[in-house]
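#struct-pred

JT: dropping the chains for the assembly here, can someone run the whole complex?
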Amino acid sequence: MKKIPYYPGCTLKTTGKNFEDSAIATAKVLGLKLLEIDRWNCCGTVTSLTQDDLIHHIASVRNFIRVQEMNERGEVDDYRLLTLCSMCYNTLKSVSNVMQERPDDLDKINNFMDREEDYKGGVTVVHLLELIREMGFDEIKSKVKKSLGKLKVSPYYGCTLLRPKEVALDDPEVPTIMEDLLNAIGVDVIDSPKKSMCCGSYQTVRNPKTVVRLGYEIIESARKRGAEALVTSCPLCAFNLDDRQKEIKLEHPDFERMPVFYFTQLTALAFGLKKDVNNFDLNFTDPRPLLKKKKI
Amino acid sequence: MAKEKNIMEKIAHANQSVTKGIDPKDVKHWAKIYIMGKVYEVPADLTIMQAMEYAGYRFIHSCGCRAGFCGACSTIYRMKGEYKLQTAMACQTRVECGMYLVQLPFSPAEKPIYSVTKEPYEGNSFLKYFPEIARCVSCNTCTKACPQDLEVMDYVQAALRGDFQRVAELSFDCIQCGMCALRCPAEIVQYNVSQFGRVMYGRNGFPENKALKKVVKATEKGEYKKDFKNLLGLNMKQSKEAYKKQQATKAKFLKGGKK
Amino acid sequence: MSKKIIEITDEGNAFLEKVNELSGQVVTLCDQCGTCSGCCPMAEEMDITPSQINRMVQLGQVEVLDLEAIWLCASCFTCTVRCPRGLDPSKICESLRQMTLRKAIDYMDIRDISEKEMRRLPQIAIVSAFRKFTG
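RK: done, full complex below.
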């Protein structure tokens, strides 16, 4: 088993537990052991975009120091930092880039954090999807035990995996990484033009109405093309597209619920893993009736 | 006093200089400190609190148990020539030469009202009562400010992900002095967060102690009434002996022997 | 339609300079093609569009700070990847928000979120909203 430092993020410990459990189980099948970094803290979930705002980078840098310590102790085989949550991925990777590009600012941050070892730079951030692509999708194909052939799903990338360019894990305009994975596990992939349109993100706190509008557009666009479910890798997209269906239903009475999966829930299904890793109770729209209908 | 026996006596001796007055000739070492900018020479073995009293201050606030438990005597200081702002409990810290210090009598904070019995034991409860914890930038200032050396930032982070046990364990020694809250750039009131964490964990998460339950039941039945009566009737000498005996039994028990 | 000549005041110029400095962008590079406004998923709710925000900054119109549009940006970076001039409008919006937040004026009161919502929302939503909307 290859050990890799793993940053879960706050949401994966609460509302996104289904994502974490299914991802750990999936990774295990692929020969990866996710070693949770100790004393991790919230990464900040969004990067600060102003030039002089360094204090908001500290949270991420502190996590890099933990990874650095882990690497120095030789506990892991892969020195990259693995994340699952798209927002954490985006934030950590952006900060990693900023620290690489602006050594003066890194010095300032190191001086500020006088109780920590200095961050020397060089921690790279990687998403589980990228690791899967590295292994090759044929490898995935060989592990599939259960056919999900009849399930029609549409991948939903959201923003943070693809934008801005410097942190994108695939082409920002024509991504294929999720399609490739879903094809490999034998799902019927439905393409939707709104797969990388923003779901409203944190506006869900202040302006839920906007999120309802965007969610409705995204879901209906996928449904029109035949999708029966969406697949995502972001717990906030999952909240906005899944939990907020309650509000969508209030706005559009003839709206029908559509389940939203995390991509790891589908891989866990395809690999024939124990059902409890998927924790479908935590999916707001229960996908089990759909799976039952499809005899999965 | 040439022969100093133990710490308690040292403290009692130092206290005399405040309560009864002391002949400056008897003081071997002096420390120069600055209280709110004004310079004072004080005997060097005093605590900050004693030193201030020696200097003529009278505490009607910022002072409580004088034993390091109540958290009322928060002090902030800087040493001459240093940039670091440090914190201390005035009753627990000796003065040092070149201290610039001031007492902080109070940290303004409203404690939200919650019902420990009715509140569901779930992760997002922290955010419901203390949404500001989501503003934490992990700057670690709170941890640096804590005179109890707690890992304050770590428990705020644990609260954010709803980990009651970690909050309770990391914050167990909190005396609610309020230093963290005064220094926090995100305006979090950490000590209220941790108190919520501890009471919730204590009620819902902490494993039940069967032995304790048994003793409580026995006490309620009145099984120890006689023992208590005996204990209260002892004179000074007898109670000292009883205490020694109890300590010996405890030591034996802790070593692994039976009582 | 009658033409109006807009004069850029010293105060306006200073404002433009400040936005350039905070965002690390050269806002005057924007040539008003409107791509950002076309792809912005929030434009429908905004009182002015992203390219109009850029224009107001170019002209040094400080009133842009009072508009709702800068707060509706969800930092989705769609405009960032599509801008033909290589500008990052999300950074421009962020610096405008920061200009208000740094005066200790918050866009939202964190106590306004109802208890029910607070229980439902995932942490990433709350943390990111507070980072964007409170100073």
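JT: nice. Chain C has a mean pLDDT of 94. Chain C has two domains: 10-103, 107-135.
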